[in-house]
Amino acid sequence: MTGDDSRPGDRVPVGGRRARWRGAVAAAVVLAGAGAWLGDGALVLAGTIPLAYLASGSLSAVEVPELAVERSVAASPAPPGRPVGVTLSVTNETERTLSDVRVVDGVPDDLAVLDGSPRAGVALEPGETWTGEYTVVARRGEYRFDPPRVRVRGTGGGAVATTTRPAEGDDRLVCRFDAEAPPVTDEGTDHIGQLSSDDPGAGLTFHSSREYRHGDPADRINWRQYAKRGELATVNYEQWVSTTVVLVLDARPACQVGAGPGRPSAVELGAYAATQAMTALLRAGHDVAVAAVGVDGSGPAGTGWVGPGRGREQRERALSLFETASEAGGSNPERNRRGFRKVAELAGPDAELLLVSPLLDDVPVEAVTEWQAFGHARTVLSPDVVPDNTVSGRVEAVRRRTRLARCQSTGARVVDWRRGTPLPVVLDHALDVAARDVEEFAHAGASVTPTTREGGR
Amino acid sequence: MPFGPRLDRPSAVGTEGRPRATSLGVAALVTVAVVVATGVAVGDPGLFGGVGLLVGLTVAGVALADRERPVEAVVGHLLFLPAASLLVALVVLQPSFVRVGVVLALAGVASGYADVADAETVSEALETNLLAYVFGFVGLFAVGAVALGARLTVGLAEGLASAGGGPVALAVLGVLVAVACGCLVLAVRTVPAVDLAPASRHDEVAGYLRRAQRGLAALAGLAMAGALILVALAVGTRSSPVAGPLSSVGETVTSGVVVVPVFAVAGLAVLVSVLSVAVERAGRTFDAGAGKGLVATLAGAGYVVFVGTLALPVMTVTPVGYLAVAVAVVVPLAVYAVAAAWLVILRLGVVSDRTMPPGLTAAGLVCLAVGAAAADLPHALVFAAVAAAMVAWDAGTFGLGLTAELGHRPETRRLELYHGVLAVAVGAVAVAVVTALDAARAAAGSGLGTPQTVALATLGVVVLLVLVRG
To answer: Contact A86/A71 with Cβ under 8 angstroms?
Structure first.
């Protein structure tokens, strides 16, 4: 909106008046002229009706009223891509009815409004409160809302006053990769890994029972069998093991794109997914290494790299790398290709590779194909940032699905993170797949059929 | 949206577009009330229904003509020109301020709802429609020429039959059949039947077409050969025993019942060929110009069918049919003149794109008021029409301002209703006061002054208000 700002109690200057009745003047002149021409007194009298409107508009006046504005931002900090509800309330604190109040909230330019509207036009009785809601899409960073602009019109709409009102309550939206992520202890949970294998041992899921040997823990003795038959037996469970997982984030410039203006980029979403996955793996006691291809760093082939490790500090180092990755990507395509290759070389023989990439070109597909030669278990988690409301977007979506299928055909596990489903659901799929991959590693030779899972944001 | 689906494509936030729905509803309500009351006052209760239908079709036509999809655009053009032509004819046949006012007021409301009053929409629709009109005009001439040719051919065949006897008549029929077969071969070659068939049946359809072409060509050859033999027979055997029976057969086959269908088949085949080629050429490229050409071609063909359907029944009976065709050809020119005037008003900046609909509604109602006064209708109707004009302008521009500032998403019904009720209240008070003054004036005779002096006083007040408040 445009117009001079005013303070409460100010009388609106003449410049704050809208000329809305020039047409009424013309109508009055036409009617009076026609009446005079036709000699019809009724027509001349009719010419005074527009003047009544002109007069009512001229007599209209307005003051900037006392309005209380409050804003609340749900779920801040929020992870990237999460719809965040914003509630704006306006209360008329004067003793008179405000016939025309228009409010526009100061949404940060970098955030897109997903649903609802940050704008409103209301009539407010004394003490009445209007409440409106809209939804923005979170992007990594901290975004400050500008104060809402308020425009008030006098009765008849002739006089206008515009001002800004500082909103009480929340004035910023914070978005972080580790939002909603549970804390990580230095030692992980009590379990040694949470990937089950077919090897019998300690765990939770029943595997088999065997004859008791001296030194077996008392909590694994099958006491029921002892009561029935008088023989001691020991229960075996599916043994939980730990492994090393290398998270590879595709942060090349080709991935610095979003589904639309104000939407998080594929790298932001990928970093968010990698953060959550890493947190889950660290809490399970696994060693996690992180590589960010497309980021200049000290890792293999000059990529960003955080070596295998566990605990809180490991996550902090990885988060720092993800934040660097979300801001800019390296522009050397050949070095990026080498980076993908080197990551596989550096990963240990038992390590699993988890690639997070939107699959917007063939480079990650080639990388997954190359990794096959190293014998690593591979999982591809792909956030979908391709819009489906344009022809070119649909074509690109077909290409992306083709790349997903190509990854799957190499034996990799593929998880398609569609827009609309929360990340934890997708990660459940991805990590469940990862668990079974470890089982396959532990018992090489088992027949495995790769699967594609679908989730969404 | 209180009434039906919307025809425009609004953006979430925009400075252009139509007023908010509730404001439009208030403006439409008062306008319709005044138009219905006017219809009752002039003894024509169907005034609103008749004019409203034509105005609605015209505006819907413009809105659809602005669409990108060819089918919608063609339907739009097919709606627009006939409805607008009938509307213009309605006004021209019975010219009055009241009728013009009703048309303008309803056009303002309808164009506000459809958001089609802006220069860009009107000019684009007009451009394509003018092209369709030219195509239709040319097509009409072509159809007329074919009809004339058919008539002449029938006459020629009958003349030859009576002069040359049965063999010559049969020869003429043979030539006609050969020509018709040739035209059908042309149509089979140009119509993209193979392309339109499912991909799995392409070969099958192509085979059918090849066989059909060969059959038609053989039939044409046979007919032509038969014609030549019959001509030779007529020259050499004028007094032969077969002359008598052939003569009676010739009279039968050269009658209009046989010749006209053969000629119609030939003409239809040529028309289909021309249309197929035109559509194929227009649709060969996918730029805006080609799309317009395609739409104009199809709409032009539709106009030919429309005018032909209207005129054919009367043409065969009376020359009035020719007059009807002439009117159908000429009236659209008046429609284009009105549309051009509309564009000139917008281009000169007399009224902006946004304020055209409420401005048109208000102007129409003021025109209606002048007409009602001139027709000596009840004074209350005159005052109500003027008040309705002000309410329509006020609500319309208020709703436009809301759209410009807040977009189409926020719920503003309460705010709009508040403003609308206020505008109606001001109008009601003004009408009540003016009616009382009018009654007093009527009771006092000329004691309150002549209309000229009152008009001067009104103008003085206007000038004063303008000077004081800008």
So the answer is: yes
Both A107 and A225 in one domain: the answer is no
Same domain (yes/no): A147, A282: no
Decide if A41 and B434 are in contact by the 8 Å CB cutoff. Answer: no
Under the banding of pLDDT at 50, 70 and 90, the label for residue B55 is very high
- Separation of alpha carbons B33 and B19, rounded Å: 20
Q: Which residues of B touch A122 (CB under 8 A)?
A: 412, 414-415
- Among A142, A174, A206, identify where a domain stops: A174
Same domain, A223 and A269: no
Which residues of chain A neighbour B466 with C-beta distances below 8 Å?
Answer: 25
CA quadruple A442, A446, A452, A453: dihedral sign? negative
Structure tokens of A11?
A: 């009388």
B41 vs A424, higher pLDDT: B41
> How many CB atoms neighbour CB B446 within 10 A?
10
Which domain CATH number covers A125?
2.60.40.10
Asked if the structure places residue A317 within a domain, the reply is yes
Please write the tens of the pLDDT for every residue from B206-226: 999 999 999 999 998 998 888
Q: Which two tokens stand for residue A52?
A: 């009544």
Asked if residue A211 and residue A295 are part of one domain, the reply reads no
B75: exposed, middle or buried (Cβ count in 10 Å: 0-12, 13-18, 19+): buried
Residue A451: the pLDDT is 43
Q: Compute the half-sphere exposure of residue A406: CA atoms within 13 Å on the CB side of its CA.
A: 17
- Inter-chain touch B434–A49, beta carbons under 8 Å: yes
Confidence of residue A8 (pLDDT cuts 50, 70, 90): very low
pLDDT at A61: 76
Model confidence at A199, pLDDT cuts 50, 70, 90, reads: low
Q: What is the C-alpha separation between B143 and B268, in angstroms, rounded?
A: 10
Which two structure tokens, joined as six digits, stand for B288?
């805006």
Between the alpha carbon of residue B182 and those of residues A318, B142, B223, B275, the distances in Å are 81, 19, 11, 17
- For residue B266 the two structure tokens come to 């030939």
Q: Calculate what percentage of chain A has a pLDDT beyond 90.
A: 15
Is residue A5 domain-shared with residue A55, that is, in the same domain?
Answer: yes
Where in the sequence is the domain holding A78, given as residue range(s)?
A: 1-174
CA distance linking residue B427 with residue B365, whole number of Å:
14
Is A322 a domain residue?
Answer: yes
- Count CB atoms within 10 A of the CB of residue B71: 11
CB atoms inside a 10 Å sphere around CB B447: 8
Structure confidence at residue B160 (pLDDT):
67
Domain assignment present for residue A11? The answer is: yes
Tell which residue, A76, A74, A91, A72, has the closest CA to residue A168: A72
Of B373, B407, B455, which has the smallest distance from its Cβ to A119's Cβ?
A: B407
Residue A67's DSSP bridge partners are: A92
- ipTM of predicted assembly, 2 dp: 0.71
Q: Give the distance from residue B373's alpha carbon to the nearest chain A alpha carbon, in angstroms.
A: 6
Count Cβ–Cβ pairs < 8 Å, chain A vs chain B. 180
Task: Name the 3-class secondary structure at B173.
Answer: helix
Q: Shortest Cα distance from A97 to chain B (angstroms)?
A: 11
Taking only the tens place, the pLDDT of each residue in B254-306 is 666 777 788 788 888 888 888 888 777 766 665 656 677 778 888 888 888 87
Same domain? A101 vs A237: no
Which structure tokens are listed for A277? 């996955």
**Chain B residues with beta carbon closer than 8 angstroms to that of A52:** 426-427, 429-430, 433
Distance CA A245, CA A437 (A): 11
Number of domains in chain A: 3
